[in-house]
Amino acid sequence: MAEILPQHPEFLWNNPEPKSSYDVIIVGAGGHGLATAHYLASRHDITNVAVIEKGWLGGGNMARNTTIIRSNYLWDESANIYDTSLKLWEELPEELDYDFLFSQRGVLNLAHHVSEVRDSKRRVNANRLNGLDSEWLEPDEVKEVCPIINTSDNIRYPIMGSTYQPRAGIAKHDHVAWALARSANNAGIDIIQNTEVTDILVEGGKALQTDHRSGEDREAGDDADRAADNGECASTEADLGEQAEYFLHVLAQRLRNPAQCAEVEGELIAQILEGAQWLVDDPLGAVADLRRRGHLVTTPSPGRPAGKSWSAQN
Hints:
There is one protein chain. This protein is an alpha/beta fold. Among the domains are: 68-171, 2-Layer Sandwich (D-Amino Acid Oxidase, Chain A, domain 2); 214-292, no CATH class. It has 10 helices and 12 strands. Strands 1-12-11-10 form a 4-stranded mixed β-sheet. The chain has a 3-stranded parallel β-sheet with strand order 2-3-9. A 3-stranded antiparallel β-sheet has the order 5-7-6. Strand 10 and strand 11 (206-214) form a beta hairpin. Helix 1 runs parallel beside helix 5 and helix 7 (237-254) runs antiparallel to helix 8 (261-273). The two termini are 47 Å apart.
């Protein structure tokens, strides 16, 4: 069994340091992002590209989807775009030189009620008008396709028939992500994991720059948040200015009742000018008081690491 398993993903792509600018920046290293990177390189020879992922590669919907690949959708537009996709799937294992367990074993959509029978037959007819391999199966034919299924009438929801698309199938989608990542990496595309895009600067309808935080930045910010929640606030005169700015920023952003903003900010400013004993002597109580009065929803940290920026050249 070990001989047929794909290569461990650690060896399929690099983890480069980001460059200062790219022609294209793709946000998200899931199925759409990695496929976009692969096709930019393979079809359009565009390789000065960064794929930025907040977590780990393929760790979002790519790792928890249904795995079903089909094109038997009702509407003409959906059926055609999904069938184009299905044709790409049929070529992808060879194109990527990777066995991601793509298996065209067909898909059944069972009908248990007369209304489902009517709607399913309508979909089959629409599919066939679009040239798709869609069929309607009676219960005995369903049993032939899937022998383990119970087609008895003596069950709570008897099977009254099913749509069937023989070309549909499944794939192991995390392996698909690895294969696309290897292809993009081999083309010179940078895949940058554990980095969160926090903002996109747009001017004149063109994305010029992304702001981002690395995992280390987020961890430092989370540590500071926890410190603030635990009452580890400013305790020296030098820290009071930053602490005051922090609380005022919190209030400006997080007040549930904007009409109270000026009153509460005034309270804080007065206490800061008087030595900020409220913050210094009992910082945890200060936070708790604001929360109790319904002003403070959350406590963003002072001195959160500033985000970094990359620019898009085009």
